[in-house]
Amino acid sequence: MFYSLTFSAARTCAQEEQLNISVTPNSETKDFGMLPMQTMYSSDGWDSYSWGFLAESTELEIVIHNPGVEEDPACGPLIDSIGLKTLYPPKRTRANMLKNGNFEEGPYVFPNTSWGVLIPPNIEDDHSPLPGWMIESLKAVKYIDSDHFAVPEGKGAVELVAGKESVIAQVVKTTPGKIYHLTFAVGDASNSCEGSMIVEAFAGKVTLQVPYESKGKGGFKRAKLRFTAMSPRTRVRFLSTFYTSEE
């Protein structure tokens, strides 16, 4: 089975920190996650982080380790509220060729929290807590749910919290020469982020910029990117041209 680990963390000092996540037994060598904590995204000092893994045994040892040597020995990340969730591999449907296109499968979100769950940068399929999607960027993206935020449809959505440094991507099977339509929704999470936003969608070499004026109270607009497939596999990517901070 595939699982997603979620935990909340806070920094005690203003210095760069990171956490190492590993699971044993594991047949792959050096197969661990290194989660950077340089950037704090919530206004109250706490962020939730997630990491996915495939279980190779009925019993596992999960280790959250601080590999750094702090300048101040009294400094170090605080860990709280650890959760584990089973994730089910998404499948493409006749209606949607993208896996988990509605972001219904995602990491566990702690009840009564206001900061969502960060998905670390440079995460491939085998460790992505967002099944079907890769994080192709230097910064994290944030998974949010409809219990705590405004989402355009369904139970989940992804917030691109770091502009062009937040990118989600998926490779989809296509037929060369055939025309496809990539439809998606752009909006705000009703978390007081106001201002002008632009989301860029890519399908192979074709791109579309979608502007959105956020009032920070929830809302969205739909967009469609029409493209002709050039190869048997097309990479679909989404990024934010710039982002707006919460006031």
TrEMBL record:
Residues 1-85, 97-241 form the DUF642 domain. Keywords: Cell wall, Glycoprotein, Secreted, Signal. InterPro entries: DGR2-like_dom, Pectin_Meth_Modulator. It comes from the Eukaryota. Its main location: secreted. It is found in: Secreted, Cell wall. This is DUF642 domain-containing protein. The lineage of its organism: Eukaryota, Viridiplantae, Streptophyta, Embryophyta, Tracheophyta.
